[in-house]
Design goal:
elongated, six-stranded antiparallel sheet, single chain, alpha+beta
Length: 205
C-alpha cells in the first residue's frame, strides 16, 4: 500500500493543475461536462500547457535570480506556480469562450460559422437582451424578460420577470403582483425573440 501511495502521489500532483483548469473552465461556462474519458484528455492538454508555462516562469525567475536572489526554486515553488498558472488558464479560457473570442476571430477569417457557446439555443438567448414570448405546449403564450434560461431546450427552467399572458386577441394580461414565473423548458413549444430591447432592465436600445 505504501509503495502504491508513493507511486500515485507524484502522478496526481503532476495532473492536478490540468484537472483544476478543467474544473474552473466548466464551472464558469455553460458547456456541459463531457464524459470522464474526454475530461481526462482535456485535463492532460491543460496539464501540458500549464507545465510549459510554469517552465517558462522558472527560466525567467532563474534569469532574474542571477542579478539578485529572492529565494530558491523548490518543488513547493513549482507546485504553487503550477496551481496559479492552472487557475489563470482556466479563467482565461472560460472568459474567451463566454465572450466568443476565438470563434468570432475565426468567423472573421471565414474559417467557421460556429460560435463557442454550448448550443444555438444558449447563443441566441444570451446574445439578444430583449423580451421573449414563450409558446407553451398547452397553447398559452407568456411574454416577459428572461432573467434565467436553460442551457438546452430539454432540461432546466425559464425564469420570466415582468410576465404577462397574451390572449387569443393579442392583448396582454399583466401579472402585476408577481416578480416572475418559472417555466420548465419541456413545457415550451417554441420561443419568439422580440425586436425591442428591454430598456427597463438597464439595457440601452
Amino acid at each position: 500500500m505504501d509503495n502504491l501511495y508513493k507511486e500515485v502521489t507524484p502522478l496526481l500532483t503532476f495532473l492536478l493543475p490540468g484537472f483544476l483548469s478543467a474544473s474552473i473552465f466548466y464551472g464558469f461556462t455553460s458547456h456541459p461536462k463531457p464524459s470522464q474519458f474526454e475530461r481526462t484528455v482535456e485535463a492532460l492538454v491543460f496539464t501540458f500547457v500549464v507545465h510549459a508555462a510554469t517552465g517558462m516562469v522558472q527560466v525567467l525567475l532563474e534569469a532574474v535570480g542571477r542579478m539578485f536572489t529572492v529565494g530558491d526554486w523548490t518543488s513547493a515553488s513549482h507546485l504553487s506556480c503550477s496551481v496559479l498558472m492552472a487557475t489563470v488558464l482556466g479563467a482565461l479560457m472560460a472568459a474567451a469562450v463566454n465572450r466568443d473570442t476565438f470563434h468570432s476571430w475565426l468567423r472573421g477569417k471565414g474559417l467557421t460559422s460556429r460560435t463557442s457557446h454550448s448550443s444555438e439555443w444558449y447563443c441566441v438567448l444570451g446574445s439578444n437582451p430583449t423580451d421573449i414570448v414563450l409558446h407553451l405546449i398547452d397553447g398559452r403564450r407568456l411574454i416577459g424578460w428572461p432573467k434565467e434560461w436553460p442551457l438546452n431546450p430539454s432540461n432546466g427552467q425559464f425564469y420570466i420577470q415582468d410576465p404577462a399572458w397574451i390572449d387569443d386577441d393579442g392583448n396582454t394580461v399583466e401579472l402585476r403582483d408577481l416578480d416572475g414565473i418559472i417555466i420548465h423548458a419541456t413545457d415550451v413549444r417554441w420561443v419568439e425573440v422580440m425586436l425591442g430591447k428591454g430598456v427597463e432592465h438597464g439595457i440601452s436600445t
